[in-house]
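Researcher: Let's continue the batch. This sequence belongs to Two-component system, OmpR family, response regulator, and it's 223 residues. Same format as the previous ones, please.
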Amino acid sequence: MRILIVEDEVTLNKTLAEGLKEFGYQSDISESLKDAQYYLDIRNYDLILVDWMLPDGSGLELVSQVKQDNPKTIVIVLSARDDKESEIEALRAGADDYIRKPFDFDVLVARIEARLRFGGSSIIEIKELIINPEEEKILYKDKEIELKGKPFEVLTHLARHKDQIVSKEQLLDAIWEEPELVTPNVIEVAINQIRQKLDKPLGIQTIETVRRRGYRFCYPRKA
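Model: Same format as before. Here are the structure tokens for Two-component system, OmpR family, response regulator:
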């Protein structure tokens, strides 16, 4: 799971990134709307933590944009505002949750886990194909398909971003903990395993290669 932290308090955003890493989350840090936009242009995120008040505008602007471009991306607003009107405004803007500062880190992690259970990591069901990220299980017409590890994660990530073209770099950033230490060839290996273990035996196509751009989840499409 990759998280984007949009917070202009340097100490806080570094503390959040380090703490989330201990729970297995990969994080990117940005301190403004402009920096956040840079990351959103090159990567896909499962969840975004965004401060309301940023140097170059309101975090709610980012909430609206993210929900328009990627409705399944979970957005949690962090704010020092403790009035109910502000919370209502954030939620109506599209935020999935609202957490008041100062907050307990363990509570924040629990809220993130809860949101991901009902959002980014929920079961994906498309026609006869069911992908269960929680149990790392794939079912096709009630038959379980053996696909584990990175190929499973690649398939799941592409399915979550159905109809979007995802580059090799975006897949590396989203799935590998240290993407700079591996080559893009690992993506080709994972895609090949998906096709050999899932597509070919079942006579379907789940992933198409978009030349020079990346990959796109395309099921249901007959091979």
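Researcher: Any comment?
Model: Residues 124-217 form a domain with the Arc Repressor Mutant, subunit A fold (CATH 1.10.10.10).
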